[in-house]
# Entry
Amino acid sequence: MSGAASGRATGLMAWWEAIRRDRKATIGFVLLAGFVLLGLVGPWLVGDPDAMVGVPLQPPSWAHWLGTTGQGQDVLAQTVVGTRVSLLIGFGVGLAVVAIGSLLGVTAGYFGGRVDGVLSMLINVFLVLPGLPLAIVIAAYLPAGPLTVAFVLVITGWAWNARVLRSQTLMLRQRDFIAASVVSGESHLRIITREMLPNMTSLLLAQVIGGTIYAIGAQVGLEFLGLGDVSAVTWGTNLYWATNDSALLTGAWWTFVPTGLCVALVGFGLVMLNSGFDEVTNPRLQQERAWRAFLLGAGVPVSRSTPVAIAHE
Amino acid sequence: MSDPASDHEPVLSVRGLCVDYVTGTGPVRAVDHVSFDLARGEVLGIAGESGSGKSTVAQAILRILPPPAVITGGQALLEGEDLFRMSEAELRAVRWRRLAMVFQSAMDALNPVLTIREQIEDTLEAHRPAGTPRNPGRAAELLALVGIAADRLDSYPHQLSGGMRQRVGIAIALALEPAVVVLDEPTTALDVIVEGEILQKILELRRRFGFSVVFITHDLTRMMQICDRVAIFYSGRMVEIAPAAELRAHPRHPYTQGLLRAFPSVHGPEGELASIPGAPPSLKSPPPGCRFHPRCDQVIDRCRTEEPALVQLGARRAAACHLVTAAAAAVSASATPATADV
# Structure
């Protein structure tokens, strides 16, 4: 992307352009930006989430927009305050699994031989460990808290990324342009960072997004099971307390629906955003977009065979 | 070279073909109003520089140009049926059965994990009409056609040389006895000896089966050797089309003349080699008038403003140049064929 094609926006502007042009990406960006903003400033806008502010298990009202929990806490405050930790862990774990995965996976694929043998063995060991059960076991032994949850998720999550990136590296390693940079005397580090990683950008981004969705889901799952710090306010503990207070039995839907909706919307936003990222990192998709628009304008369906759009001349 | 072209209607007739590549800043015309006829059994050569649109024409006829290409005008009549009006299913029936293609990288078009036999039989099987029996000997027959012994049938592609693989590609193209075979620089990746063998083989098969060939290359010398007629492309347009011998002896368009001067002659007298100055124009903003005028050594005022039309010069010859048009008008009164260089 550093090769500035004439008239094409580069760097951050290119990303912004691609997000703006793609309706799905715009939706995803707006959703995510909203949640990030909520996580940043939300805690100052709502009251203390732990304070018992009203009668327990009250449905939504003007005083408490999303009702109250079984402990008489404000659900809105709990949901908003939970956003910060949940998103932090989500993005943190998403980035960390890809960072570790790419470091080990690309190293294994690039150097091959004994290095690959040792690292592949390590990757395979972590792959065959059942993820969620292991997470539960580790979480049960470590001191409860959001950082423990994040640690557990990174330990059980990185191997998948390493596996995929290793095979991607093996494939790129065979390409002529890598052979050319070896011949021209580039260092290993430069070949990996300047020649190989840019070719994996869309894959890396998809992995960060996939990792984040996994982390948010798994974190909520672990905390829901009581394996997190139940006194912290996160989306997972919100759900834990909702079941603990028999929300389903008492029909108190407002204690779990807001949090569940937030988890779903963040995941939805991330997936939507990914489609826009795909386009920036894959220039061919941009060209296809212009092509599709042209055919739409000509009233000709997109076809596998070269389409014929003959205007009256 | 014999002249197999008869007065029958052409097997393939391309009329006013236009192809655009859609870019972020609007469509760019890569092929502009190209028309030619291909007679039954004829070998038509298409020559031009890189980017002149010669491969685009071939792929447009088969409708296999990938996005962002769009066919924006014209007709391509294969035995009277317009390929540009066909549905996906109709195209499927036409491709390979009546209109086949050998790619520049046909040798890479073979699947490395299947034997040659399996790949030839796959093609036969895919197009076998329901109810007709399989012909297990056909694969060996086809290999024999391209001069490969039947004991190579169970070889994998990596066990064959590049030339053999390319010949397998040709055998697969001929498997269904198509009426037209498009050869898109089929020998560019091969050495001169193998190239010669393969082209001779194609000519020989053409004589046996009577299919027509569209042969695309940038090797003008080779083209003159094997083609009945040659079309010269420049910047997305056809500037001249003529029987190969006439084109070599009396090129009419200044671009053709320049091209021929740039190639050494193997048999003829040793002449001075000259290159054409300049570079082909950008298709995004082609020069007004004749697209060749900025590089033309015989340019007149009219060339700068007015686009020359393709003018028919006799039954099988045409050129798009104001000088040629003027000369043709001058001699038409005396009704003698123009032979002198313009």
